[in-house]
């Protein structure tokens, strides 16, 4: 055979091989896994890398020395890819669980969505709330853009967030925004891949992210004591040159209320009470009102560098009382209210028989101690119980 013919034959074989690799990638991508993982971006990419696919095809060809069909190669590829995704999603789930194992009990916020559901729907409403833990902090290659990899306790997948520049000062070796830190965020928009399967969905920068603190953790307790215990609301009101002072406040959320629109601008107010029982209003305007979805009555709010303004109830009033606003330099931390619990004793006569093995006969001096959650008013909270409570 002529050299030119050999070259042409080898080129044809190589072209067929590359075509099969591309075909296999498209088949595996469109299959969407075995249903046990979330589609879309997760701990493993939804589209197998080209180099990984080539290596797996060559490995299968060596394993079947007597010959192999396209169906066998596709079957092996699909199985290997599914196992790899399962392994990586399991590792991520274990990591998220370990990061959250010391988290205090608290209620899930209204409008909370999971990362898995974001990938499944390929959509994220700006009004949705994301309760997440930071898995990783990194710089996007070739840029100076910081990214956060976020996970949550309900999902096996993760998602990347372009960090808004107002939070860049909180990134660093000894800074507070790092792996293991819990955050809640809203006002988010999703950046989907330009070509399906060519990349992961990511969350675009949002100004409405709140960093969660835990008073039981030494690092957080030191931050609160050092930065937020200097000023009270009364000291600010008495200070004539208050606009020249950078204030930080620590106060309890007493009320969250919707105000009459100011012109066409939506407004909400959060009534805050400090340790001296002094009250002040934290006013949110326009798009800022979505921040209120991250707060709950009874939680502690730490406000760093709030904008100090004068409050008017409506368009026709002159601003009189002082209030706080969410300015361009304002940072918000939250110490969520823990879900209170109440211990009660149930006697055997209060326990219904669950089957023939359980006796309904009362036994003297026997009782069961159980823990029941309480709501903010101190009453036993039965909202989490799946069955009707029979009295």
Topology:
Elements: H1 3-31, H2 50-63, H3 70-99, H4 115-121, E1 130-139, E2 146-151, E3 159-162, E4 182-185, E5 190-191, E6 202-203, E7 209-212, H5 218-227, H6 233-238, E8 248-262, E9 265-273, E10 279-285, E11 300-304, E12 307-311, E13 321-325, E14 331-335, E15 341-346, E16 368-373
Parallel strand pairs: 3-6, 7-14, 10-13
Antiparallel strand pairs: 1-2, 1-4, 2-3, 4-7, 5-6, 8-9, 8-11, 9-10, 11-14, 12-13, 15-16
Helix pairs in contact: 1-2, 1-3, 2-3
Instruction: Please count the beta strands (DSSP E, at least 2 residues each).
Output: 16
Task: Let me know the largest β-sheet.
Answer: 14 strands, mixed
* Alpha-carbon distance between the two ends: 93 Å
- Counted up, domains total 4
Structure class: alpha+beta
Order of helices and strands: HHHHEEEEEEEHHEEEEEEEEE
As a whole number of angstroms, the C-alpha radius of gyration is 28 Å
- Strands of the biggest beta sheet: in what spatial order? 5-6-3-2-1-4-7-14-11-8-9-10-13-12
Overall spatial form: elongated
Q: List unreliable stretches of 5+ residues.
A: 3-10, 33-44, 194-198, 348-368
So what's the CATH class of the largest domain? Mainly Beta
Q: How many DSSP H or I helices? A: 6
Mind telling me the CATH superfamily name of the largest domain? Answer: Nucleic acid-binding proteins
**Architecture per CATH nomenclature, i.e. the level-2 architecture of the largest domain:** Beta Barrel
Protein name: Cell division control protein 24 OB domain-containing protein
Pfam families: CDC24_OB1, CDC24_OB2
Domain Cell division control protein 24 OB: 17-144, 149-276
Organism: Aegilops tauschii subsp. strangulata (Goatgrass)
